[in-house]
């Protein structure tokens, strides 16, 4: 039996823990908040008349399994503040409710503290004044997550108004040197498409347009294509808008129409801003404590071979991934530990 500490109780940490516990290893999850879930707990089911395969059903199963395993201990409201030892015999210094202690005799360590979304950053503020008609994708998620499923017919969209049109703008916090994120966050296209389908479900007559830089697939078993947008009466414009302003009780979007080769305007009742994935500030602390390397965007990667250090990284702490990608990566990390025979077990 191996003894493994996992820092982070989001989907990456939970999936890794389940795989290891199923092979009879002792697992300790260290979570700074008072519940499991991380960012994923803020997402809601986007099924309409059909399942759109957002993979949240998989997530629920994983967290339920964590609670069921006797060999998984969860330390809530706990922070890591020290790290000593060598591979196969590590000690973590922790603080829990003002009490300092240590977790000793650890064979492995997995760091899986995830990402932060663009709107949570101090710089993540839309360059427009506050307007109830301009919302972050996470605000729309607050409505969606309260639905049990698409059969929850009594649940209505609780906006202050009934929009006749809506626009999604992709790549907020991504694909930008200014925002320190030249990369694609990989999740925005698929999730915006799914949220657009939910809006259509509640407001069948609503006109929806998505601005994007290039179209990414929408995740596991869910291809996103121009044809799929057309089939569901969702318009698309291939550019990032130049300016957003309020005009005549509408939100005015000023953009360059690449097909026509000229600038144009689009007015809408509701504007939803996608949110790119960003590295957490705590990654700087982990890089020093565990001898890891930060890339130019603040994500982490190992300096030495993880097989030699017994310190593994799981999920979006290494870079942007959707739910399916995070689950797959976490399983891979667990399997590497399970198949490593240089320590006990």
Mean pLDDT: 86
Counting DSSP E segments of at least 2 residues, the number of strands comes to: 20
Low-confidence stretches: none
| Element-level helix/strand string | EHEHEEEEEEEHEHEHEEEEEEHEEHEH
Q: Give the biggest beta sheet.
A: 5 strands, parallel
Structural class given helices, strands, pairing?
alpha/beta
Report the helical percentage: 10-25%
CATH top level of the largest domain is Alpha Beta
Q: In what order do the strands lie side by side in the largest sheet?
A: 3-2-1-7-20
Radius of gyration: 22 Å
Which outline best applies? elongated
Q: What is the CATH T-level topology of the largest domain?
A: FAD/NAD(P)-binding domain
| CATH architectural label of the largest domain | 3-Layer(bba) Sandwich
Count up the helices. 8
* CATH superfamily annotation of the largest domain: FAD/NAD(P)-binding domain
